Amino acid sequence: MSTHEASAGEEIDAIITAVGGWRAEVLAALRRVVVGADPEIVEEIKWRKPSKPEGVATWTCRGNVCMADVLKKAVRLTFPQGARLDDSAGLFNARLDGSTVRAIDVFEGAQVDEDGLRELVRQAVAQNRKG
Fold first, then answer.
1. Kind and range of the H or E element at 7?
2. Number of neighbouring beta carbons within 10 Å of residue 76
């Protein structure tokens, strides 16, 4: 019997399965766009704590690119350096008052602007590569 330790991708699959419903569909869709935006993006699980033992789905490339939180009424995609990105598609709709962080809350029934999101992810990766 193998003592297989789950990969981050498998753990994110488990988070999606556990959430279920529309939030699972949204998280899976966001994940597809983020992972597809750059071949060097890596999936990780970060910030495990007793109140959130599954941790937070995080996508990195030379630093954090974005992370997903499943909220009661939305799925939130947070960009730690979001204020430095050109959000020409107007996707950021949460955490707008901070000096660095920006987030996108996706609510039930909302359509994700995949092209706009892909562009934000590519910009975030470019910022990380600059250092």
1. none
2. 18
Do residues 6 and 14 lie in contact, with contact meaning Cβ atoms separated by under 8 Å?
yes
Cα distance between residue 56 and residue 54, in whole Å? 7
Q: Strands across the sheet with 74-79, in order?
A: 42-46, 56-60, 64-70, 74-79, 102-107
- Three-state secondary structure call for residue 113: coil
The pLDDT tens digits along the chain (131 residues) read 445 567 999 999 999 999 999 999 999 999 999 999 999 999 999 999 998 889 999 999 999 999 999 999 999 999 999 999 999 999 999 999 989 999 999 999 999 999 999 999 999 999 999 98
Q: What is the DSSP string of 44-94?
A: EEE--BTTBTT-EEEEESSSEEEEEEE-SSEEEEEETTGGGS--TT----B
Provide the whole-model pTM: 0.93
State the virtual CA torsion across 34, 94, 46, 74 in degrees, nearest 10. Answer: -80
Eight-state DSSP code of residue 98: S
Chain centre distance of CA 92 = 13
